[in-house]
Amino acid sequence: MSKTKLLSGHKVVPLTQEEQKEITDSGVVFPCAMVRLQPDGWLLPDPMAAKYCDTVYNFKFRPDDLIVMSYPKSGTTWMQEILWTMVHNPDLDHPETSKPILDRSPDISFDFIFDTPVAQFLKFEAFRKWFAEVCPDRRTEDGIMLQITELMSGRRIIKSHLPLSLMSPDFLDKAKVVYMVRNPKDVIVSYFNMLKKINVGEFSSAFESFTRSFMQDNLIFGPYWRHVQEAWEQREHPNLRFVFYEDLKADTMTHLQRLNDFTGANLTQSQLDTVARHTSFSSMKGRGEPMKDGLFTNFFRKGTSGGWKSYFTPELEQEMDDWIEKHTTKNGMNFKMY
Ligand code: PPS
Questions:
Q1: Nearest ligand 1 atom to alpha carbon 281
Q2: Which residue lies with its CA nearest to atom 15 of ligand 1?
Q3: How far does residue 172's CA lie from ligand 1's centre (Å)?
Q4: Ligand 1 centroid vs 16 CA: distance in angstroms?
Q5: Active-site residue, 161 included
Q6: Could you read off the pLDDT of 213-268 as tens digits, one per residue?
Q7: Using alpha carbons only, what angle is made at residue 264 by residues 174 and 236, rounded to the nearest 5 degrees?
Q8: Which residues contact 63 (CB under 8 A, 6 or more apart)?
């Protein structure tokens, strides 16, 4: 029987039939059984939440690790490439430059979706092969990406969509985190387009109902606001940088200079210029998809801010504006919507 109480203090609560039906019927991603981790309401696939949350909680992060955390579709991959290039490839002479980013910067939240029925749509075989090569004596049931990451040498740039409250209380004292956040309107447009493209579970949701599911906290790794709020509360922590996608886009160099200090990469201005060029949207798109043979096609879709304008009806925009206002008036978080 799987655990019901996690080391993080969360309780694993299966969805009621009605809740599960609401999620399944809305045509939303991940046509599989889900649980909520209460009291925060984190929505994760069953039984992976109970299986891997404690492993993540106990994961041995190293003092030089850089972890990119985010709610999905917030610019995670962009930040992974920025950090990896700053740390490992500022002169663009690293032999692994042309490997997909997810091979160089592993995603520890992938384990939560590997064994779901979704895997058949996502073609994760490449990761299983990789696991067999680097972890020949280990069991896949103990986590594919978690173990690949554990055995990785050198300075690790790790990706995770899991929220801060599922990590151990001293997590931020053990490693450095860059938390990426993007305005929720562009997040949902990006998310919608990705799911349409990969057609997970014959994704049938219309934009409007998909956006409502997002606002009702019915998408995996959500609730969105709690995810963002937890990082926002830590924004003064010396080991966390809270970066808005819109700011990074509008003034990339200022952020690269800050990240240069934060990571201790100690790059020259000319190297920072190289990093900026190498991680621009057009360069990254030109080099190919973030994962070989699977999941993404046309991952680098638009890479802009404000694209949401052509998706929202005035009514839906008003609904979302109210939702945004409700969650930002008290905390002073100021999203640029462009
Ligand atoms: S994921 O799948 O959740 O990890 O997605 P994530 O990487 O967080 O977000 C994907 C969106 O980020 C855009 N992107 C970029 N924007 C600007 N510059 C660069 N270099 C860049 N790289 C990725 C990507 O295109 C997705 O946004 P949309 O709006 O869909 O284009």
A1: 20
A2: 303
A3: 25
A4: 34
A5: yes
A6: 999 999 999 999 999 999 999 999 999 999 999 999 999 999 999 999 999 999 99
A7: 55
A8: 174, 175
Q: Please state the pTM of the whole predicted model.
A: 0.96
**Residue 213 · residue 203 · CB < 8 Å:** no
CA 44/CA 85 separation, integer angstroms: 31
* β-bridge partners, 241: 178
How far is it, in rounded angstroms, from Cα 193 to Cα 302? 10
pLDDT (tens digit per residue) in 23-72: 877 666 566 788 999 999 999 999 899 999 999 999 999 999 999 999 99
- As a whole number of angstroms, the distance between CA 113 and CA 330 comes to 34
Lining residues, ligand 1, CB within 6 Å? 70, 72-78, 186, 190, 193, 279-281, 284, 300-303, 307
35 close to 12: Cβ distance less than 8 angstroms: yes
In order, the DSSP letters of 128-194 are HHHHHHH-TTS-GGG-HHHHHHHT--SS-EEEE-S-GGGS-TTHHHHSEEEEEE--HHHHHHHHHHH
Domain parsing of the chain, residue ranges: 53-328
d(CA 202, CA 90): 41
- Helices (H), ranges, the chain: 17-25, 48-57, 76-88, 101-104, 111-114, 119-122, 125-134, 144-150, 171-174, 184-198, 207-215, 224-232, 245-250, 252-263, 269-278, 281-287, 314-328
Report the C-alpha gap between 266 and 280 in whole angstroms: 20
Is-cis flag, bond preceding 184, omega within 30? Answer: no
Give the full edge-to-edge strand order of the sheet including 11-14: 11-14, 34-38, 42-45
Q: What is the pLDDT of residues 64-109, one digit of tens each?
A: 999 999 999 999 999 999 999 999 999 999 999 989 999 999 999 9
Integer angstrom CA distances of residue 3 from 7, 58, 94, 104: 10, 16, 43, 32
Q: How far apart are CA 238 and CA 174, in angstroms?
A: 11
Per CATH, domain 53-328 is 3.60.160.10: no
Ligand 1 closest atom vs CA 194: 30
